[in-house]
Amino acid sequence: MKFWKKLVLFIITMIAIVLSCSRHYIVKSNFLHSIENSKNQNMKQHMLEKYMLESNMIKNIQLGEGISDENIVEYLESLYQYMENNSEFVAIYNEAYEKIYSNINEIDQVEIKEILNSQKEVYAIRQIGNKHYMLFSSNWSIDNKSIYIVNAYDVSELYEEQQRQMKDILIANILILVVSAIIISVFSTVLIRPIQKLNKMSKKIASGEFSGRVDISSNDEIGELAESFNKMAVEIENKINELHLQVKQKDDFINGFTHELKTPMTAIVGYTDLLRLKKCDEELFGKALYYIHSETKRLEMLSFKLMRLMALNDGKIEVKGFWITELEKKIQKAEEMMITDNTIEFRLEPAKIMGDSELIEVVLRNLIENANKAKPKDHKILVKGERLENENYKISVIDKGIGIPKEHIERVTEDFYMIDKARSRQEGGSGIGLSLVTKILNFHHSKLHIESEENVGTIVSFELKEAGRKCEE
Predict the structure, then answer these.
(1) How far are the Cα atoms of 52, 328, 374, 385, 391 from residue 347, in angstroms, in the given order?
(2) Interstrand relation of 343-348 and 380-387 (parallel, antiparallel or unpaired)
(3) What is the pLDDT at residue 404?
(4) Which of 34, 110, 229, 303 has its CA 20 to 30 A from that of 103?
C-alpha cells in the first residue's frame, strides 16, 4: 500500500474514532439531561397524585366510610376524573402486592414486586411493548392497610429523540468523513509529492545517473531532507569521479610503466642479439654498446624513481633541520646534473629548513631536470630560495623554455603523464618525475605550484618550514 493511502486511512480512522466518541458523549449527555428533567417533572406529578389520593381517602374515612378495594378504585377513578386524566397510567397494589387496579397495558411484564420492595418513592424505566415508561412507586398506610401506587409516564419520545439524534449525527459524520477523505487525499498527494521526487531521483542515482538533483524549495523538514539529499548526491558524484580518475590514473600508470619497461628492454635485447649473433665492425659495436648502456641507465633511473615512490607509500621519511647551502653543494656535485648546454644559477638565501634532505634533493633534481628538457632560450636555469614572512622558505626553479600548455598543467603531476610522449622518451623522460615530487612534498605538508606560459617559460616552486631565523653562512 502506498504511503499516502496509509496516511489517508490512518487520519480517516482517527477522525472516525473521535467523531464516534464525541457523538456518543453528546447524545448520551443530552439524553441523560432529558431523562433527569423528565424524572423531576414526573416525580412532582407522582407525589401530587399520591397526596391527593391519600387525602381523599382520609377524608372519606373521617366521614365514617370504610376502606375496601372497591372504595380505593372509586377514589382513584374520581381523582383522575378531577385531574382531567393528567396521568392516564396508574396501578394500585395491596400489601400482598396483589393488583387492585391498573390501566397500564401489559403491566404484568414488569417485575413490580422488585420495584415496590426496593425503597419508597423510587423510579425505574422499563420497556412495555414498543414503548418506554418511567415508573414511580410510593406507599402509605391507612386504616392498618398498606397501599402501593405506581405511576407510569411514557418517555418513548426521549428514546426516539435519542435515536433520531444518533441517526442525524451518523449521517453528518459520514458526510464529514467523505469530505475529509477527499481533502486529506488531495493534501496527502501534495504533501507526498516531494518525497516521490526524492524517491524517483534516488532510483536514478542508484542506476548511475549521479548528476541528478531534486528541486524542492521549502522551509520544513522535507526541504531540509532535500537539501541533505542534494549534498549527498554531490558527494557521491565527487567520489565516483574520484574513483573514475583513480582508475584512469591506475590504467595510465600500468600502461605507461609497461611501455617504459618495454621500450628500453626491446632496444637492449635487439642490440645484444646483434652482438651475439653477428660479427660487427668497430663503429657498429660501439653504437650498440652505447645504446645498451644508455637504455640500461634509463632502466636504472626508472627503478630508482619507482623505489622512491614505494618508500613514500610506506610513509618512511625523516624530517629534521638542514642547511640549504649543503643541498646546493650536493646538487652541484651530482653527476646527473652535469649539463653541458645549460648552466644552473643558485640564488639561495641562507637558511635552515625542515625536511628529509635526501628527498628534497630528489625534488630539486627532478625540477632541474625538467627545466633542462624545456630547452631554455638563454641556456640558464635559476634555482632561487627566499625567506618568507610566515617563517616558510620558498624554493623556485625558473626557466625560459617552451613552457607547459594550460590544459596540461593540472595533470603533469600524474604518474607517467607526459605532454609530448615522443619527445619526453627521446630525452630520457619517464613521466613519473613530477608525480614523485608531488608525493614527496605531500609528506612534507607542502604543495607544488606551477606557473607556465607557452614559449615564455615556467616557474615551479614549493615551500618548507624554516628551522630557525638565525643562520650561519
Answers:
(1) 136, 10, 20, 6, 18
(2) parallel
(3) 84
(4) 34
Query: Is CATH 3.30.450 the right assignment for the domain spanning 3-164?
Result: yes
pLDDT digits (tens, 9 = 90+) for 256-287: 566 556 667 877 888 888 788 877 788 888 88
Summarised one tens digit per residue, pLDDT across range 36-47 is: 888 888 888 888
* Residue labelled with grid coordinates 600500468: 254
CA 335 – CA 294 distance, rounded (Å) = 15
C-alpha cell recorded at residue 445:
605538508
Residue-by-residue DSSP string for 20-70: HHHHHHHHHHHHHHHHHHHHHHHHHHHHHHHHHHHHHHHHHHHTT----HH
Residue 461: what pLDDT?
Answer: 92
Q: Rounded to 5 degrees, what are φ and ψ at 449?
A: -110, 125
Return the residue matching grid coordinates 404484568.
108
C-alpha to C-alpha distance for 187 and 174, rounded to whole angstroms: 19
Query: Checking DSSP bridges between strand 131-142 and strand 122-128, what pairing results, if any?
Result: antiparallel
Q: What is the pTM of this model?
A: 0.41
Listed by start position, the domains of the chain span: 3-164, 210-315, 317-468
Domain covering 317-468 assigned CATH 3.50.30.60 in the classification:
no
Cα 356–chain centre separation:
47
Q: Provide the grid cell at 362.
A: 630528489
Q: What is the C-alpha separation between 180 and 169, in angstroms, rounded?
A: 16
Task: Report the 3 state secondary structure along 148-168.
Answer: EEEEEEECHHHHHHHHHHHHH
